[in-house]
Amino acid sequence: AQKVTQAQTEISVVEKEDVTLDCVYETRDTTYYLFWYKQPPSGELVFLIRRNSFDEQNEISGRYSWNFQKSTSSFNFTITASQVVDSAVYFCALSEATDSWGKLQFGAGTQVVVTP
Amino acid sequence: KAGVTQTPRYLIKTRGQQVTLSCSPISGHRSVSWYQQTPGQGLQFLFEYFSETQRNKGNFPGRFSGRQFSNSRSEMNVSTLELGDSALYLCASSLVASGGGATDTQYFGPGTRLTVL
Question: Which of A65, A106, B40, B56 suits a disulfide with A60, CB 3.0-4.6 Å?
């Protein structure tokens, strides 16, 4: 069963608009980590943010912010004032304690297209 | 500090052949994980190695195997290649896959794009 769901296949925005990416996860573990990665056309997955299951504090880092809500099993990610360089596929991923920390379970990804 | 390196970057093989892909983790990182990315199945976990031991394996046939050396470098091997093995193979390393702290973040290499004809 899919443990990480990214319902949005593609989002298109004009530069400077905000973009919010949705991620819903499923786990029975009480200890787990959630991640967001970015994959530009070059193919390399770039780490963006990480959150553990005990810390629901939402933060802002530069143009990135995230909203982690355990009550709804959601870990949404927002890019503020998008730029063309933000165009990429964004993946949400889950790592569970009862599995191994070295195993990431990814969602299907959301393609973000930012046009000038 | 140098990132994760993977060689070769591109590979073309024919059905029935075997292939070996190599991954050098970030210096000091002891855990290496491998993933397969295809348009149809997305990103799927293959296996994870830590201190030369396979700690976890994904749902792939036995044709897929791997190993890790004492210097943490890792290789994965695919025998008897099939057309469906065409994919981007990504390697990731983390400092210590222990379940605690920021050190467990996985950092990915550029991948090896394998095409099976």
Answer: A65
Which pLDDT tens digit goes with each residue over A89-108?
Answer: 999 999 987 777 789 999 99
Mark yes or no for CB contact B56/A103 under 8 Å. yes
Q: Do A44 and B109 touch (CB under 8 A)?
A: yes
Chain A positions in Cβ-Cβ contact with residue B93 (cut-off 8 Å): none
Q: How far is residue B50's CA from residue A96's CA, in Å, rounded to a whole number?
A: 17
The kind and range of the H/E element at B33 are strand B31-38
Task: Output DSSP code: residue B25.
Answer: P
pLDDT in tens, B54-109: 989 999 999 999 999 999 999 999 999 999 999 999 999 998 755 555 557 899 99
Does residue A42 carry a pLDDT above 70? yes
Which residue, chain included where needed, has tokens 């991640």? A35
B99 closest CB neighbour out of A91, A97, A108: A97
